[in-house]
Amino acid sequence: MLTESLEDEQEDYHVAGVTDVMTQNADDNEAPNAIYLPPYVSCMSHSQNLIASTDAAKALTSNNQYKKLYRSVSGKCTALSNAVHVSSKNAEMAQELLHCTIPKPNTTRWNSEFDCLQRIYEVRDRINTVMERLKLPKLVELAFLGEWLEVMQPVATALDKLQVLSSGGKYCIDFVVIH
């Protein structure tokens, strides 16, 4: 659907390379086929990542109960992820009990945090056994985690799709349009 939409738009415009724009004579801008630079449009994947990280973080400042619950869940899940990624013994024990691995979030992609929290929620019936064996506090905020995942799922899905599209360099590019 996105591909069809972009193809339809391309029929209305000619995409010129930056070299074409740089070598065009300044007087040619008055010609009917003048080259116009579009307004700055950031990569959609980057914009969606900012919504998920920066804008969602703003919600923490407006609601103390949400802030407390989110930080508690986030801290416990981070502690679990760190514990299973620091020690192969811990990783093996967790994988044996959970029948899966816990992903390690990274700071550059918000959806890696979402994926980690989602995996933990998927094994919620067994996660506290692992927490107990690792001598970590129990994750008792599972209802909150489930609701948070439900709210953030559309953002994560969109971000995953945009990152797949932009990884091929097809849609996350700078361009110049000739009218």
Rounded radius of gyration (Å)? 23 Å
- The assembly state of the depicted protein chains is single chain
Strand residue percentage: under 5%
Please tally the helical runs, counting DSSP H or I stretches of 4 or more residues.
Answer: 8
Largest sheet: 3 strands, antiparallel
What's the helical proportion of residues? 55-70%
Low-confidence stretches: 169-179
| SSE class | mainly alpha
Care to describe what's here?
The chain has a domain at 63-159. It is 66% helix and 4% strand. The protein has 8 helices and 3 strands. It is globular and about 40 Å long. The two termini are 24 Å apart. The model is unreliable at 169-179 (pLDDT under 50).
Question: Could you give a quick summary of the protein structure above?
Answer:
Helices cover 66% and strands 4% of the residues. With 179 residues, it is mainly α. A three-stranded antiparallel β-sheet has the order 1-3-2.
Keyword list:
single chain, 179 residues, mainly alpha, three-stranded antiparallel β-sheet, 66% helix, disordered C terminus
Detail the topology: elements first, then pairings.
Layout: H1 2-12, E1 14-16, H2 18-23, E2 35-36, H3 44-62, H4 64-86, H5 88-98, H6 110-122, H7 124-133, H8 142-167, E3 176-178
Antiparallel strand pairs: 1-3, 2-3
Helix pairs in contact: 3-4, 3-8, 4-5, 5-7, 6-8
